[in-house]
Structures are given as C-alpha cells and as structure tokens.
Write a structure and sequence with these properties.
Keywords: Membrane, Transmembrane, Transmembrane helix. This protein is α+β, with helices and mostly antiparallel strands. Helices cover about 20% and strands about 45% of the residues. The protein has one domain. The protein has three helices and ten strands. Strand 5 and strand 6 form a beta hairpin. The model has no long low-confidence stretch (mean pLDDT about 90).
C-alpha cells in the first residue's frame, strides 16, 4: 500500500517538475512575415503599404508566467535612429503579451533612448501588431504619440487592411477595453 502511494507521489512529482521545466524553457523565435503598415481612420483607407518583419530572439518565461523577449525586430523600410550593432531589444511582455519597444544604446553623450511603439503578440508569436509612435522633436526632446483614431499600425501576417485590423483588434482586445480600431 505504502509503495503504491510513494510511487504515485513520485510520478506526480516528476510530471509536475517536467511541466514546470517545459513551461519555463526558453523559446526561440524566428518570424519572417509579410504584413501591412497602415494609419487608422476612414480618411486613410487606401494608404496601406506592404512590409516585411523579421523577429529573431528568445522568449523567457518566469515561474509566474510573465514573458520577456530578447532579440531583434527588423521592419522593412523603417529608419531606426539607433546604431546597427545596438538594436537588440529586451521587451517585458508580461502575461498579456504586450510590451514597449524601447531601444537603449550608447552614444558619446551617454545613454540614448528611442521609443518605437508598443508590440502585441499572440501565444505562438506568429501574429504581431505594433502601435508605431509618430515621432516628433521639440527643442531637442525626442518623443512621440499614438492615437486609436489616427495612429500608425503594423500588423503581420496580413495581406490587406481588413485582415490587419482583425489581427490588431484581436491582439489588443484587453488594451482597447471595448474600443474597436477602424
């Protein structure tokens, strides 16, 4: 009797440890996808542009389920004012799989920062949408903004605006809290 209970506890323990190890084991991400870059709002329909995204890196999962992406994200045609050799990102995605794309890099004056936008991904990292900050500079201050009414978006994989909007609305559902992007 005690042998059966001991064996059952051992099997459950091994299964639990195996599940935990598999759950937190780093996941390699290689995504190359075609998508759409577009601006929200009916007045911008027809201004969409087809682009390619390359996302390469590793996703780490904590014991609490929070995810962190470490790697690079290249977007066709985007000029990122960060030295090429310093474009690695570390994005804390949390449990909701969204995070800030903030580049931090070294320059002569010290540490520089460039905020590209906010990224939202699905669990498999096969669908991505990015709210792209409209960049502006006022008296040497670099910043940007984004609006659900006329903000700039990138969604992959998508072949047209309707598909891109479906991906964005699905991935951003909790963030939008009932608002629907158009």
């Amino acid at each position: 009797m005690y042998k059966k209970i001991g064996l059952s506890i051992l099997i459950i323990g091994v299964a639990l440890i195996t599940f935990i190890v598999i759950s937190i084991y780093p996941q390699t991400i290689h995504l190359h996808a075609q998508g759409i870059k577009y601006r929200l709002g009916a007045e911008h329909i027809g201004d969409e542009k087809s682009i390619a995204i390359d996302m390469n890196g590793t996703v780490y999962t904590s014991l609490t389920g929070n995810k962190r992406f470490v790697g690079t994200i290249s977007i066709e045609g985007e000029e990122i004012p960060v030295p090429e050799n310093q474009r690695q990102l570390e994005i804390n995605l949390g449990k909701d799989l969204s995070g800030v794309m903030l580049y931090q890099y070294n320059e002569d004056e010290g540490i520089g920062h460039f905020l590209y936008g906010t990224i939202f991904v699905n669990r498999s990292f096969r669908e991505v949408t990015i709210t792209v900050m409209d960049q502006y500079s006022a008296e040497g201050n670099q910043g940007g903004n984004w609006s659900g009414g006329d903000g700039l978006m990138i969604s992959v994989p998508a072949s047209d605006r309707a598909e891109a909007l479906r991906i964005s609305n699905r991935l951003m559902k909790d963030y939008l809290d009932g608002y629907i992007l158009h």
